[in-house]
Amino acid sequence: MFFVILAILIRQDALLAGTGQLACDSASISGIIEKAKVSSSDSAIKLYQTAIQKAMVCLDGSNKKVKRSLNKLIIKAHLGVGLTNYQNLQYGKALQSYNAGLQLANSINEPFEIAECLFSIAEVYLEQSHFKEAMNKYQESQDYYLKAKDKAGIFWSYTGMGIVQKQAGNLNDAIICYNKALDIALKSGLKDESAICYNNLGNVYRKKGDFSKAMEAYQKALNHFRELKDDLSASDCMNNIGNLYLDNGDPFRALDYYNQSLKIAKLHKDEYRLIIRYKNLADAYTNLGDYENAEQFLKDALTLAEKSGDKSFLASCYMQSGKLYSIKNDRDIAIAYYTKSCKLFELIGSKADQADVLVEMANLELSNHEIKSATKYASEASALARETGALKVLLEASQCLSKCCEENGDSRQALFFLKEVLRYRDSLYATDKYRTIEEIEAGFIQHELKKENSALTQNSLLQKQAIRTRNLVLFLLLLSLLLSVALIWMVYKRQKEIRKESQVASKNQEQKIEKLNEDLTTKERELTSKTIFINQKNQLLEKLINDLDELKKGDVSVSEIQRLQVQLRQELSPNAWKEFEVQFNEVHPGFQNRLIGKYPELTPAERRLCSFIRLEMNTREISSLTGQSIKSIEVARTRVRKKLSIPHEHNLNNYIALI
User: Fold this and answer.
1) Could you state, in chain order, the average pLDDT of each consecutive group of 10 residues for the chain (659 residues)?
2) Domain 588-657 is in which class?
């Protein structure tokens, strides 16, 4: 039933989306509602309430068209709150939300919204087994769906009414409702809905004891669900076919269908379906006399049923427990379980199921020679079965009553009930019906075989295609491998060539460096030689100048001697310095430029002094080379130190060597 509401809410979204662009903040409100649908329960309710509050604020000052659209969003939010509470089994709160939505829908006179609210209320009543109220609301919702011309809504209303009638035991009325729903689904091309109808019809026909029609309906439903790839619904059909075989006394075939169905339910972790599967497996194993397996499956079913709180599930599990203990000859426990089951079925108004339980109780009491109790239970079962049209229960109740009358010595009454048994048996187990069931099953198996054959053929083609694809892939992989090897070899060869070229270039570079070093050494030697030569020349000239000073003391003309001294002093070093500077720049390229760049305030004489210091010459050698006194050189060094900002404790020579 949950998926029914969900489907309707989804359809409502689509219809509301078609109202066009809303004013105010309707887009934001719709976004909040959409977010609520995928949120946890508490968050969802808060988001729906936020959407309602926002929409209420937007209503003020809006025009008539916008108000109508906003009211639809409020109704949608109320339905969302109701659905969330419904899922949490808080039926009272769900009804409050649905009724709030209904009141607003009535105020704006929107047939579709009214129908949605009424249908949702009916779903809650159905879940609570309030069949009369549920039936009324489904009928009302159907009327409004007709006004809204919503075929899907009319379909679900008939389906809901069919469920109510089936649960209440009114099987003939349930068939009428389901057939009306089926007619709408077929005419509207609703395949999923058609399959649901066939499955529901199969359940009702089985309850009535019309096994041939039940099998035919189940087969159609199963084919539809498989075509639609709806595994869970297909699982329901297989479970129902298993029930049909169990009713016909074939527990082995029933087990086969139950196990297929169970596998799908476990895969989807669907506890609702697992309860039914476990209970049915317990029933099949009970029929086979495997009580250990039966008890285990029944225990699993009861655990899940108690967790769900579903009265119908609990009643079915209690009934199955009663059967198990009855077979184990534990009468008191069996009767206790049957009684609990009977009361629950009576509470929810499921007359057909209640009649089943009463027949089981009657047969148990009869086996224990409790004739009075057996007669009472069998009579009650017969009355309920006659009311609901359940032939199988009528047959079993009449058999029990016939034996009870025989035990009491009432042969005439026993004969009456025996005739009833024969009449019901002829109606229920006619040869034609058995043949029909077998034909349907054979047709079903043939259909399955055709499908399997088609699948095998398709698989064969796919395998061939897969082999071709695999071969192509292998060829491409091999080709890629060969290309990769070739590429790696080429890269390796190129790298080898590069290494070889690098080695040659490195060797050439080393040779060039060696030659440059040799040239540098040669030039350094030349520079040193020239420096020594200049120094010697200057020393000689200095000596000559001194000698001339001595001559001035004699008779030689003083003016002549002075002229010679001037010429000698002029030739003392300038040319020598120019040659020296050229040689120095070749040995220490860029030194002078760096010195000028960093310390532009240095004079040419100071830069020359730095060059001598760079050649690691001492003060005396510089004095001799430049023709200046040692004291003058020391003073010049002090000036250079100051201009280069070199602390007193640091070595001037080391500092200049780093420039």
Assistant:
1) 43 41 66 86 88 85 82 90 86 90 91 93 86 90 92 91 84 90 89 90 86 89 88 90 88 91 90 88 88 88 83 85 86 90 85 88 90 91 83 86 88 86 71 45 48 58 78 88 90 87 84 79 66 68 73 69 66 61 78 90 90 87 80 92 88 87
2) mainly alpha
